[in-house]
Amino acid sequence: MSRGLEISFQLNDNDEKIVFALANITGNDFLIKDKSLKWLIFHVTLGEHKFYKILYSGKKINDLHPGLKEGIRKEFDDLSKLEYNELMNKYNEMSQNKDFIDVKNIKEVTEEYDLWQDPLWNYI
Questions:
Q1: Quick one: which of 80, 13, 23, 86 has its CA closest to 56?
Q2: Which homologous superfamily does the CATH classification assign to the domain defined by 5-122?
Q3: Does residue 124 surpass a pLDDT of 70?
């Protein structure tokens, strides 16, 4: 059963502005297609590894259309390939819009290796 879309990634540097830019630009671009779209940002520690997860979900947690999921994945991937300055310029420009939703909270979570369950769903 699908519960939304989860995107996991690591940064090459420690600039969290990139995390906010990727999550918020992508989320706001797809609000046009699904007004109930919401997203949460997690900073995950798994053993010695640290990475980020962004969870995109609809009105109901299992409510994202497969086409919407694919579009979000592609948009996120395309944005992640932009140069830092280009990404930040786009983020700053979009954030000037009064309707722009700017999620600025990162929830710290610790996970343990568990091949039977994805613990992200326990945190929402």
A1: 23
A2: Uncharacterised protein PF09406, DUF2004 (3.30.70.1980)
A3: no
